[in-house]
Amino acid sequence: MTVPPPRLIATDLDGTLLRNDATVSPRTVAALAAAEASGIDVIFVTARPARWMGVVTAHVHGHGVAICGNGAAVADLHRGGELVETRPLAVENALLIVHALRRAAPGVSFAVERSAGFHHEPAYPPLIWDSASQVAAAEKLLTHDEDLPVLKLLAHHDTLDPDAFLALGREVAGAHGEFTRSSTTALLEISAPGVSKASTLAQRCRRHGIRPDEVVAFGDMPNDLPMLGWAGTGYAMANAHPTVLAATRHHAPSNEDDGVARVIEALLAG
Q: pTM score, two decimals?
């Protein structure tokens, strides 16, 4: 029996679609183009901010929409990553989270991702790809430029185990935000309550009349778990975090082995 192709493919980027050097392989480029040519929408769903989407801009077809910041923003890649929708974290919630984590995890440092820039505390590890617009205490960063939405609050710790830090964050401040992680380090990514890759993807699919069982999704880290569970068919990459592999029925070859492309090829072959 042939299996009908999905209507939409939703894929994470780092550790999933992209190789470890943050490039898109020729095989993956060809598979994405073939999917779009066959009438399947492809949407990138990532923790990256819109300004970091240049790695895939050349491979955007169709509507050109990407879900960024773990669901906190929707960007139009055909228009230079312009944000067409945001789901911001309220400043009051962010401050409550900062205060709770400072008490529970001494040594924590914070960064703030706004719709138009990135800011961090002096102790927060500097980013290779980005320079901060402001360096100051989180409390000051959150109460400055309040007209620009806060998309994500990030919390970093030098010594805590990444999974233990995630569990701690959810325990002490989970009522005020959505906690997840996509880094191999102890870095928490915090969005507004209920905002995730899954919830924003589900919202867009409802608007376009696409059912969960018509979606195939790919991911590798804890921030992908809700999306992989929501989609009718969710694939964990072979290189995925152990909890993602354990929770996901379908497994694809690793990102270094063009796993997403291989599955797309099989889907198109029926």
A: 0.94
